[in-house]
Protein backbone atom coordinates (compact mmCIF):
# COMPACT_ATOMS: atom_id res chain seq x y z
CA UNK A 1 0.00 0.00 0.00
CA UNK A 2 1.12 3.54 -0.78
CA UNK A 3 0.54 6.97 0.78
CA UNK A 4 0.82 9.95 -1.59
CA UNK A 5 1.57 12.82 0.82
CA UNK A 6 1.08 15.68 -1.64
CA UNK A 7 -1.57 15.83 -4.37
CA UNK A 8 -3.39 18.69 -6.07
CA UNK A 9 -6.45 16.84 -7.35
CA UNK A 10 -8.25 20.08 -6.49
CA UNK A 11 -7.03 21.87 -9.65
CA UNK A 12 -8.78 22.16 -13.02
CA UNK A 13 -6.35 19.72 -14.73
CA UNK A 14 -8.50 16.92 -13.27
CA UNK A 15 -11.96 18.35 -13.95
CA UNK A 16 -12.67 16.02 -16.87
CA UNK A 17 -11.64 12.68 -15.36
CA UNK A 18 -11.20 12.97 -11.58
CA UNK A 19 -13.03 9.71 -10.83
CA UNK A 20 -10.93 7.75 -13.33
CA UNK A 21 -7.76 9.20 -11.80
CA UNK A 22 -8.93 8.08 -8.34
CA UNK A 23 -9.71 4.59 -9.64
CA UNK A 24 -6.22 4.28 -11.19
CA UNK A 25 -4.70 5.38 -7.86
CA UNK A 26 -6.65 2.67 -6.08
CA UNK A 27 -5.57 0.07 -8.66
CA UNK A 28 -1.93 1.09 -8.16
CA UNK A 29 -2.22 0.50 -4.40
CA UNK A 30 -2.55 4.10 -3.20
CA UNK A 31 -4.31 3.69 0.13
CA UNK A 32 -4.29 7.29 1.34
CA UNK A 33 -3.46 10.77 0.11
CA UNK A 34 -3.22 14.33 1.38
CA UNK A 35 -4.76 16.94 -0.90
CA UNK A 36 -3.09 20.32 -0.59
CA UNK A 37 -4.96 23.62 -0.96
CA UNK A 38 -2.96 26.80 -1.41
CA UNK A 39 -5.33 29.66 -2.39
CA UNK A 40 -8.96 30.88 -2.46
CA UNK A 41 -10.03 28.28 -5.05
CA UNK A 42 -8.04 25.19 -4.08
CA UNK A 43 -8.52 25.32 -0.29
CA UNK A 44 -12.33 24.90 -0.29
CA UNK A 45 -11.99 22.22 -2.97
CA UNK A 46 -9.43 20.31 -0.85
CA UNK A 47 -11.81 20.38 2.13
CA UNK A 48 -14.73 19.31 -0.04
CA UNK A 49 -12.83 16.32 -1.43
CA UNK A 50 -11.48 15.29 1.99
CA UNK A 51 -15.09 15.29 3.26
CA UNK A 52 -16.26 13.22 0.29
CA UNK A 53 -13.56 10.49 0.32
CA UNK A 54 -12.63 8.71 3.54
CA UNK A 55 -9.08 7.93 2.30
CA UNK A 56 -8.34 11.58 1.56
CA UNK A 57 -7.05 14.19 4.04
CA UNK A 58 -6.45 17.90 3.54
CA UNK A 59 -3.66 20.40 4.15
CA UNK A 60 -4.37 24.12 3.91
CA UNK A 61 -1.94 26.98 3.59
CA UNK A 62 -0.98 30.05 1.63
CA UNK A 63 1.50 29.59 -1.22
CA UNK A 64 4.62 31.81 -1.07
CA UNK A 65 4.22 32.93 -4.70
CA UNK A 66 0.92 34.55 -3.65
CA UNK A 67 2.17 35.76 -0.25
CA UNK A 68 1.37 39.34 -1.25
CA UNK A 69 -2.36 38.43 -1.34
CA UNK A 70 -2.51 37.04 2.21
CA UNK A 71 -4.17 39.39 4.68
CA UNK A 72 -5.33 38.83 8.27
CA UNK A 73 -8.61 37.63 6.78
CA UNK A 74 -6.92 34.69 5.06
CA UNK A 75 -4.92 33.89 8.19
CA UNK A 76 -8.12 33.80 10.28
CA UNK A 77 -9.70 31.57 7.63
CA UNK A 78 -6.79 29.12 7.88
CA UNK A 79 -7.13 29.12 11.66
CA UNK A 80 -10.82 28.31 11.41
CA UNK A 81 -10.17 25.47 8.95
CA UNK A 82 -7.38 24.04 11.10
CA UNK A 83 -9.95 22.55 13.48
CA UNK A 84 -11.68 20.61 10.68
CA UNK A 85 -11.37 16.87 11.47
CA UNK A 86 -9.84 16.05 8.05
CA UNK A 87 -7.26 18.86 8.09
CA UNK A 88 -3.98 17.18 9.08
CA UNK A 89 -1.37 19.89 8.35
CA UNK A 90 -0.90 23.54 7.43
CA UNK A 91 0.74 24.24 4.08
CA UNK A 92 2.00 24.40 1.62
CA UNK A 93 3.89 27.42 2.91
CA UNK A 94 7.49 28.52 2.51
CA UNK A 95 9.59 30.61 0.16
CA UNK A 96 9.81 30.70 -3.62
CA UNK A 97 12.53 32.92 -5.04
CA UNK A 98 12.02 31.70 -8.60
CA UNK A 99 8.95 33.88 -9.18
CA UNK A 100 8.89 37.55 -8.22
CA UNK A 101 5.17 38.22 -7.75
CA UNK A 102 5.71 38.54 -3.98
CA UNK A 103 8.83 40.32 -2.62
CA UNK A 104 11.12 38.28 -0.39
CA UNK A 105 10.38 40.27 2.77
CA UNK A 106 6.63 39.73 2.34
CA UNK A 107 7.14 36.02 1.66
CA UNK A 108 9.18 35.69 4.84
CA UNK A 109 6.58 37.58 6.91
CA UNK A 110 3.71 35.42 5.60
CA UNK A 111 5.79 32.27 6.16
CA UNK A 112 6.50 33.30 9.78
CA UNK A 113 2.81 34.03 10.45
CA UNK A 114 1.79 30.59 9.17
CA UNK A 115 4.43 28.82 11.30
CA UNK A 116 3.17 30.76 14.33
CA UNK A 117 -0.39 29.70 13.49
CA UNK A 118 0.69 26.05 13.18
CA UNK A 119 2.22 26.22 16.65
CA UNK A 120 -0.94 27.85 18.01
CA UNK A 121 -3.24 25.16 16.59
CA UNK A 122 -0.66 22.37 17.00
CA UNK A 123 -0.52 21.09 13.42
CA UNK A 124 2.62 20.12 11.47
CA UNK A 125 3.60 22.11 8.38
CA UNK A 126 4.35 21.36 4.72
CA UNK A 127 7.16 23.37 3.18
CA UNK A 128 7.43 24.58 -0.40
CA UNK A 129 11.00 25.59 -1.23
CA UNK A 130 12.28 26.95 -4.49
CA UNK A 131 15.76 28.44 -4.59
CA UNK A 132 15.43 29.52 -0.96
CA UNK A 133 16.84 26.68 1.18
CA UNK A 134 19.09 28.70 3.50
CA UNK A 135 16.42 31.32 4.26
CA UNK A 136 13.85 28.58 4.88
CA UNK A 137 16.06 26.77 7.36
CA UNK A 138 16.86 30.03 9.13
CA UNK A 139 13.17 31.00 9.45
CA UNK A 140 12.21 27.49 10.64
CA UNK A 141 14.95 27.62 13.28
CA UNK A 142 14.09 31.15 14.43
CA UNK A 143 10.39 30.32 14.68
CA UNK A 144 11.14 27.05 16.50
CA UNK A 145 9.22 25.00 13.96
CA UNK A 146 10.61 21.85 15.56
CA UNK A 147 7.78 22.13 18.10
CA UNK A 148 5.31 21.02 15.40
CA UNK A 149 7.60 19.37 12.83
CA UNK A 150 6.96 19.26 9.14
CA UNK A 151 7.63 17.94 5.67
CA UNK A 152 10.16 19.26 3.19
CA UNK A 153 7.89 18.72 0.21
CA UNK A 154 9.37 17.50 -3.08
CA UNK A 155 12.87 17.84 -1.67
CA UNK A 156 15.17 18.65 -4.56
CA UNK A 157 18.22 20.09 -2.85
CA UNK A 158 21.67 19.07 -1.69
CA UNK A 159 22.01 16.23 0.79
CA UNK A 160 24.00 18.71 2.91
CA UNK A 161 20.80 20.32 4.23
CA UNK A 162 19.07 17.08 5.21
CA UNK A 163 20.61 16.88 8.70
CA UNK A 164 19.38 20.39 9.58
CA UNK A 165 15.86 19.36 8.54
CA UNK A 166 15.98 16.11 10.51
CA UNK A 167 17.17 18.01 13.59
CA UNK A 168 13.98 20.11 13.43
CA UNK A 169 11.73 17.00 13.41
CA UNK A 170 11.17 17.28 9.67
CA UNK A 171 10.49 14.48 7.21
CA UNK A 172 11.87 14.43 3.68
CA UNK A 173 9.36 13.81 0.91
CA UNK A 174 10.60 12.73 -2.52
CA UNK A 175 8.65 12.91 -5.76
CA UNK A 176 9.05 12.54 -9.52
CA UNK A 177 12.52 14.17 -9.80
CA UNK A 178 14.11 11.15 -8.06
CA UNK A 179 13.29 9.18 -11.24
CA UNK A 180 14.75 11.71 -13.68
CA UNK A 181 17.84 10.37 -15.44
CA UNK A 182 19.92 13.55 -15.00
CA UNK A 183 18.84 14.31 -11.43
CA UNK A 184 21.69 13.47 -9.05
CA UNK A 185 20.68 15.41 -5.92
CA UNK A 186 17.36 13.67 -5.14
CA UNK A 187 19.00 10.29 -5.78
CA UNK A 188 21.70 11.04 -3.20
CA UNK A 189 19.01 12.19 -0.79
CA UNK A 190 16.97 9.03 -1.40
CA UNK A 191 19.94 6.97 -0.25
CA UNK A 192 20.72 9.21 2.74
CA UNK A 193 17.42 9.81 4.56
CA UNK A 194 16.84 7.45 7.52
CA UNK A 195 14.08 4.85 7.15
CA UNK A 196 11.79 6.55 9.63
CA UNK A 197 11.87 10.04 8.01
CA UNK A 198 11.21 9.20 4.38
CA UNK A 199 7.96 10.06 2.59
CA UNK A 200 6.80 9.85 -1.03
CA UNK A 201 4.54 12.08 -3.08
CA UNK A 202 3.54 13.02 -6.61
CA UNK A 203 2.77 16.77 -6.33
CA UNK A 204 0.38 15.96 -9.18
CA UNK A 205 -0.46 17.38 -11.73
CA UNK A 206 3.17 18.56 -11.73
CA UNK A 207 6.51 16.71 -11.92
CA UNK A 208 5.39 13.39 -13.39
CA UNK A 209 8.02 10.67 -12.84
CA UNK A 210 9.89 8.91 -15.63
CA UNK A 211 8.67 7.56 -18.10
CA UNK A 212 5.76 10.02 -17.93
CA UNK A 213 7.95 13.09 -17.47
CA UNK A 214 6.36 16.20 -19.00
CA UNK A 215 2.85 14.72 -18.96
CA UNK A 216 0.15 15.33 -16.38
CA UNK A 217 1.07 13.61 -13.13
CA UNK A 218 -1.44 11.62 -11.03
CA UNK A 219 -1.39 9.71 -7.70
CA UNK A 220 -1.04 6.27 -9.36
CA UNK A 221 2.47 7.31 -10.43
CA UNK A 222 3.65 7.51 -6.82
CA UNK A 223 4.34 3.81 -7.34
CA UNK A 224 7.09 4.75 -9.83
CA UNK A 225 8.65 6.98 -7.16
CA UNK A 226 8.56 4.16 -4.58
CA UNK A 227 10.07 1.68 -7.06
CA UNK A 228 12.94 4.03 -7.88
CA UNK A 229 13.67 4.71 -4.21
CA UNK A 230 13.66 0.96 -3.49
CA UNK A 231 16.19 0.43 -6.28
CA UNK A 232 18.43 3.28 -5.05
CA UNK A 233 18.34 2.14 -1.41
CA UNK A 234 18.70 -1.53 -2.36
CA UNK A 235 15.59 -2.33 -0.38
CA UNK A 236 12.48 -4.16 -1.56
CA UNK A 237 9.49 -2.29 -2.96
CA UNK A 238 7.38 -3.77 -0.14
CA UNK A 239 9.76 -2.42 2.47
CA UNK A 240 9.71 1.11 0.97
CA UNK A 241 5.95 1.21 0.48
CA UNK A 242 5.30 -0.11 4.00
CA UNK A 243 7.83 2.18 5.66
CA UNK A 244 6.76 5.37 3.87
CA UNK A 245 3.08 4.62 4.55
CA UNK A 246 3.78 4.03 8.26
CA UNK A 247 5.81 7.25 8.39
CA UNK A 248 3.04 9.27 6.75
CA UNK A 249 0.36 7.91 9.07
CA UNK A 250 2.49 8.66 12.12
CA UNK A 251 3.36 12.15 10.85
CA UNK A 252 -0.25 13.13 10.05
CA UNK A 253 -1.72 11.31 13.05
CA UNK A 254 -3.83 9.01 10.87
CA UNK A 255 -4.84 5.56 12.16
NI1 LIG B 1 2.34 21.37 -4.16
Automatic annotation (TrEMBL):
Residues annotated for a divalent metal cation 1 binding in this entry: 6, 8, 92, 203
Keywords: Hydrolase, Metal-binding
Classification via Pfam families: TatD_DNase
Phosphoprotein recorded as keyword: no
Any one GO cellular component localisation term in the record: cytosol
Domain of life the protein comes from: Bacteria
Family annotation (InterPro entries): DNase_TatD-rel_CS (IPR018228), Metal_Hydrolase (IPR032466), TatD-like (IPR001130), TatD/YcfH-like (IPR015991)
Matches recorded under NCBIfam families: YchF/TatD family DNA exonuclease (TIGR00010)
Protein name per UniProt: TatD DNase family protein
The species this protein was found in: Gracilibacillus kekensis
